[in-house]
């Protein structure tokens, strides 16, 4: 069990004018830990994810990241170039819509290889081999390596986006509704894949989802958001099996049983 | 290490916010301890709070009051207040649980479900699967099923996968929630034998067994959970 957190979030709030995006969120995320942020649309979960991943600047509060050199850095005080380097190397971001995270008009292999080139890899053969290996790991046949993601199904595009994000061995991955919009059978395959990769690579992850079954399957810990605030948090199975807050009880009781 | 689990003055109630905030007290003043090599059975009629106690011991239900002290990695951890990652660490290394029902993961086959807790403790995939196969054969689960995800298995088959998963590690404390409920006599006997082996290995066991024959065979001590009825303390 690692003793120091990878991410330290203190009192983060984001206002859009006078409207609240999220308010006073604090938590720590340790290496290998998977945190699910759940709540209905408009509860602030995506705003929070954006604040954590530097896609938005918080109105107040601090997000600190434990760099590979052992130092904590305040993300807001980094230069734009440093943030972008972090995003490309040590972090991953899996979007709900794969088109937002992929380059749709370059080949699948290039989509994966591009991230490797960003960390300084220049050898074409090595890059192609690594891309092929990652396609296999996300269960895309290697003979599709030269096809564009435009020609892929939704599930394949999402798996390709995951490969693109994981190829640089990031330590932290953000995911925004990674299974949203997929058929259930495709969802199950993706969930199983993500679960295995997160476990094998010892990744820390923050996953935003409105699907409590996804949270149960993938996460260790859970935060429930409502009106921009975290109203309940704890061990995932504790929150789902013994919800305390009225809103959490409503969410859990609204799950459809199969 | 003689007493790996001590429960002291634990209370639990549910507040049902969807039903006008009605408060249902479940148990109060739960106090007992379990020694290494001992099997304690929680007894009493249905609805008295036996499963709730087991779930609190596992960190699955929150605790309103009291302490649940577990000897973990040479120190005492209070599960009633521990951080989620500490609870997970205790579950990985010290505290095992055989639930009544198997929660299946899509696409993961029975053998890997059983092997997983050993792999989480650093055993190689090959060795873990070998040990999983031994346990599944012991529990008479047909070999054809090992490579299938258990979603479509019968109740008894799923329960045997669950038992094998719970018994595969050498956790110091093992919680058993009716592990024999849907088993036939032959497999019940296997489980009784497996529990005896855990006891001689020094595991502390806490279980719920509705089957009287099994209970007689495994229990060193029976705790009547109706003793912890909140009504007794209401006044």
Automatic annotation (TrEMBL), chain A:
<dbReference type="GO" id="GO:0005524">
    <property type="term" value="F:ATP binding"/>
</dbReference>
<keyword id="KW-0456">Lyase</keyword>
<protein>
    <submittedName>
        <fullName>Carbon-phosphorus lyase complex subunit</fullName>
    </submittedName>
</protein>
<dbReference type="InterPro" id="IPR027417">
    <property type="entry name" value="P-loop_NTPase"/>
</dbReference>
<dbReference type="InterPro" id="IPR012700">
    <property type="entry name" value="PhnK"/>
</dbReference>
<dbReference type="GO" id="GO:0019700">
    <property type="term" value="P:organic phosphonate catabolic process"/>
</dbReference>
<dbReference type="GO" id="GO:0016829">
    <property type="term" value="F:lyase activity"/>
</dbReference>
<keyword id="KW-0547">Nucleotide-binding</keyword>
<dbReference type="Pfam" id="PF00005">
    <property type="entry name" value="ABC_tran"/>
</dbReference>
<dbReference type="InterPro" id="IPR003439">
    <property type="entry name" value="ABC_transporter-like_ATP-bd"/>
</dbReference>
<dbReference type="InterPro" id="IPR017871">
    <property type="entry name" value="ABC_transporter-like_CS"/>
</dbReference>
<dbReference type="GO" id="GO:0016887">
    <property type="term" value="F:ATP hydrolysis activity"/>
</dbReference>
<keyword id="KW-0067">ATP-binding</keyword>
<feature type="domain" description="ABC transporter">
    <location>
        <begin position="7"/>
        <end position="252"/>
    </location>
</feature>
<dbReference type="InterPro" id="IPR003593">
    <property type="entry name" value="AAA+_ATPase"/>
</dbReference>
<comment type="similarity">
    <text>Belongs to the ABC transporter superfamily.</text>
</comment>
TrEMBL record, chain B:
<dbReference type="GO" id="GO:0016829">
    <property type="term" value="F:lyase activity"/>
</dbReference>
<dbReference type="InterPro" id="IPR027417">
    <property type="entry name" value="P-loop_NTPase"/>
</dbReference>
<dbReference type="InterPro" id="IPR012701">
    <property type="entry name" value="CP_lyase_PhnL"/>
</dbReference>
<dbReference type="InterPro" id="IPR003593">
    <property type="entry name" value="AAA+_ATPase"/>
</dbReference>
<dbReference type="GO" id="GO:0005524">
    <property type="term" value="F:ATP binding"/>
</dbReference>
<dbReference type="InterPro" id="IPR017871">
    <property type="entry name" value="ABC_transporter-like_CS"/>
</dbReference>
<dbReference type="InterPro" id="IPR003439">
    <property type="entry name" value="ABC_transporter-like_ATP-bd"/>
</dbReference>
<keyword id="KW-0456">Lyase</keyword>
<comment type="similarity">
    <text>Belongs to the ABC transporter superfamily.</text>
</comment>
<protein>
    <submittedName>
        <fullName>Phosphonate C-P lyase system protein PhnL</fullName>
    </submittedName>
</protein>
<keyword id="KW-0547">Nucleotide-binding</keyword>
<dbReference type="Pfam" id="PF00005">
    <property type="entry name" value="ABC_tran"/>
</dbReference>
<feature type="domain" description="ABC transporter">
    <location>
        <begin position="5"/>
        <end position="235"/>
    </location>
</feature>
<dbReference type="GO" id="GO:0016887">
    <property type="term" value="F:ATP hydrolysis activity"/>
</dbReference>
<keyword id="KW-0067">ATP-binding</keyword>
């Amino acid at each position: 069990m690692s003793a120091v957190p990878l991410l330290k979030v203190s009192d983060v709030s984001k206002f859009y004018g006078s409207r609240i995006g999220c308010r006073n969120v604090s938590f720590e995320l340790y290496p290998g830990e998977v945190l699910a942020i759940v709540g209905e649309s408009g509860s602030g979960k995506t705003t929070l994810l954006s604040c954590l991943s530097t896609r938005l600047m918080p109105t107040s509060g601090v997000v600190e990241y434990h760099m590979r050199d052992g130092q904590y850095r305040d993300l807001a005080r980094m230069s734009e170039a440093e943030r972008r380097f972090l995003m490309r190397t040590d972090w991953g971001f899996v979007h709900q819509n794969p088109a937002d995270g992929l380059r749709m008009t370059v080949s699948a292999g290039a989509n994966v290889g591009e991230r490797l080139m960003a960390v300084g890899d220049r050898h074409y053969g090595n890059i192609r081999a690594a891309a092929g290996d990652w396609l296999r790991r996300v269960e895309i046949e290697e003979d599709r390596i030269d096809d564009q993601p435009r020609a892929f199904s939704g599930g394949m595009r999402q798996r390709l986006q995951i490969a693109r994000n994981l190829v640089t061995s990031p330590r932290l991955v953000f995911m925004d509704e990674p299974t949203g919009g997929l058929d259930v059978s495709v969802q199950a395959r993706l969930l199983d894949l993500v679960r295995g990769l997160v476990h094998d690579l010892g990744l820390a992850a923050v996953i935003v989802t409105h699907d409590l079954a996804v949270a149960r399957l993938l996460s260790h810990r859970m935060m429930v958001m409502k009106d921009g605030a975290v109203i309940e948090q704890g061990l995932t199975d504790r929150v789902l099996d013994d919800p305390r807050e009225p809103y959490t009880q409503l969410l859990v009781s609204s799950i459809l049983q199969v | 290490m003689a007493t790996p689990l001590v429960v002291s003055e634990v209370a639990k109630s549910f507040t049902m916010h969807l039903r006008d905030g009605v408060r249902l007290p479940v148990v109060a003043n739960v106090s007992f301890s379990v020694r290494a090599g001992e099997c304690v059975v929680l007894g009493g009629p249905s609805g008295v709070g036996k499963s709730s106690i087991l779930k609190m011991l596992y960190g699955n239900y929150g605790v309103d009051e009291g302490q649940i002290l577990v000897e973990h990695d040479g120190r005492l951890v209070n599960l009633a207040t521990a951080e989620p990652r500490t609870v997970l660490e205790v579950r990985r290394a010290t505290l095992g649980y055989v639930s009544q029902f198997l929660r299946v993961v899509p696409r993961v086959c029975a053998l890997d479900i059983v092997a997983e807790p050993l792999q989480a403790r650093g055993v190689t995939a090959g060795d873990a699967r070998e040990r999983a196969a031994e346990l599944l054969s012991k529990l008479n689960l047909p070999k054809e099923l090992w490579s299938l995800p258990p979603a479509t298995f019968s109740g008894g088959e799923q329960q045997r996968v669950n038992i094998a998963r719970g018994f595969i590690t050498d956790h110091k404390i093992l919680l058993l929630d009716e592990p024999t409920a849907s088993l036939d006599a032959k497999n019940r006997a296997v489980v009784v034998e497996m529990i005896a082996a855990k006891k001689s290995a020094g595991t502390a066991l806490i279980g719920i067994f509705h089957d009287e024959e099994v209970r007689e065979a495994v229990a060193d001590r029976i705790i009547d959970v109706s003793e912890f009825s909140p009504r007794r303390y209401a006044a």
